[in-house]
Amino acid sequence: MLAIEAKGVQKYFGALHVLRGIDLSIRSGEGVVLLGANGCGKSTFMRCLNRLETHDRGTITIEGQATETLHGKGLRDLRRHVGYVFQQFNLVPNISVFQNVLFGALGRRSWAGSLNLLAPAAERDRAMACLERVGLADKAAFRASQLSGGQQQRVAIARMLMQDPAIVIADEPIASLDPKAGREVLELLWEVVSERGLTVLCTLHQLDLAIEFGQRIVGMKAGKVHLDGPGKSFSRDELNELYHGQARVDALPLRAPSLEPAEA
Ligand SMILES: Nc1ncnc2c1ncn2[C@@H]1O[C@H](COP(=O)(O)OP(=O)(O)OP(=O)(O)O)[C@@H](O)[C@H]1O
Fold first, then answer.
1. Which backbone phi and psi does 246 adopt, to 5 degrees?
2. 250 CB under 6 A from ligand 1?
């Protein structure tokens, strides 16, 4: 079964043609590393997957559900199925690590309910189990801001597990971490997604780690998929090529959307 299917996806920001016809199918349970230079459109594509951005042309299907027509509950359900891990962790700094993990249940309960100290016992147990899984149960009562960057990203992974998504989008999850902490976080992320059979799409800027962890590497260049295959099938030189020449979308001439031929 396909977890993610993008067909001819195009996106403009004004006259900037950011996504230039992305075709990409990712099977359930695949671990995909997305590579590409700054400004080539990776984040925009990933944000289109759960409609944080709306694409202008083409179709995106998540777990068999076309996203274009979703609204209200359908959109909330889509977002619950897609968990995010961000470069900057996105934790609430001045509340406890435990409460941050409980936030992962937001898609299932009301905002106030997730803050409630009287969250159902089963949910609190689950939050603690998620913290145990990332090795931070002993830090549950700490404020998030008291933790190191690596620990904060582990809490973000626990929060993502609490959400219980089918698909995990990780947008440069180790970019703020030192090499050792970054590798540890990536190992943890890959372990938890594989033990739960989740699909992961993860951007990285470290080619060695991409080759090592990417069961599959998708490389983008200037708003298009430029290469796609098993991580170990690419040489560093082939991957390096993604960062040379016209790699950014804003390095190309601007074209107003109305000048683009419509999709067939
Ligand atoms: N909301 C927005 N409004 C206007 N332009 C945007 C917006 N978001 C992104 N862009 C532009 O779209 C282009 C692609 O940005 P995007 O963030 O998708 O690239 P990226 O490949 O994720 O880069 P990075 O590796 O730096 O995160 C850039 O030129 C960026 O300035």
1. -85, 85
2. yes
